[in-house]
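Reopening: structure tokens for the adenosine-5'-diphosphate complex, inputs below.
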Amino acid sequence: MYGLGIDIGSTASKAVIVNERRETVGSSVCALGAGTSGVDQALSALFEQTSLAWDDIAYSVATGYGRQRFNRADKQVSEISCHAKGVSLLLPGVRTIIDIGGQDAKALRLRADGALDEFIMNEKCAAGTGRFLDVMARVVESDVSLLSELDGQADLPVEISSTCTVFAESEVISRLAEGEPIPNIVAGIHRSVARRAASLVRRLGPVEGPVAMSGGVARNQGAVRALENELGVAIEIPDSCQLSGALGAALFAIEALGKGRIRSVAAGPVAGREAGGLYDVRY
Ligand code: ADP
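Re-run output (same inputs, fresh job):
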């Protein structure tokens, strides 16, 4: 009996299959997000890898930015619930989760029993998200997967004072023209993302540990180190951090089979905050 989780993000499509023992039997990531062929590519790769097909899937859950427009799943669940679920399986007891994806950043606070307590998100601005890093990687003629290594070679991070991605890009171009070493620029870029993420996390109140990071940006050790420095806490990274949302969706799928319905990590609606305003989100 297999459960399928599909996370259709703004930047990447991820898919995970779990069995009834909640073990991952296969996973895939395609670097194409909502509105593209990314989800089909991710699913084809997953089915090929596992030698399974749609007919073998007993229940499927879609999550992520593009979940509403994906009509092949049995159920849609918010990515906040799915990240909480996926990370909690891999890192039991985690109390704070910072999820930085391609287009937004979220901070989640969990109760001791793993239930979602509160969350806050920034989806209004590219600063402090993977998009910021993707743009800056192009400016320094690198790839996001290489930014961490460059950061490791920095001796004096440059100050990137603009928070706006467009102005920060101009600033980076100026520093490059002045001959500033690229590793120092990259370290400054990571610090800028970390400052934004840290201020988001602090809006939830005092940071409660253990703290974990999920989402694609958690693959960037340079960004993770910068965030650890900003927050003054150690950050744990679950295995396959970019797949946490898809894993959580797959876990909801397998639980739905056992209970005949989707069980949420949160008991009912949870108050969340977006860009400072309060709103209710049903899970
Ligand atoms: P979404 O769910 O919004 O599509 P993801 O959680 O998949 O976003 O994260 C996408 C981001 O992850 C990209 O914008 C990029 O900055 C970062 N990323 C992806 N792959 C890597 C990698 N190999 N190394 C470092 N960062 C990465």
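Residues 9-12, 33, 64, 101-103, 130-131, 133-134, 144-145, 215-217, 219-220, 242 surround adenosine-5'-diphosphate (CB under 6 Å). The two ends are 24 Å apart (CA to CA). Marking as resolved unless the reporter disagrees.
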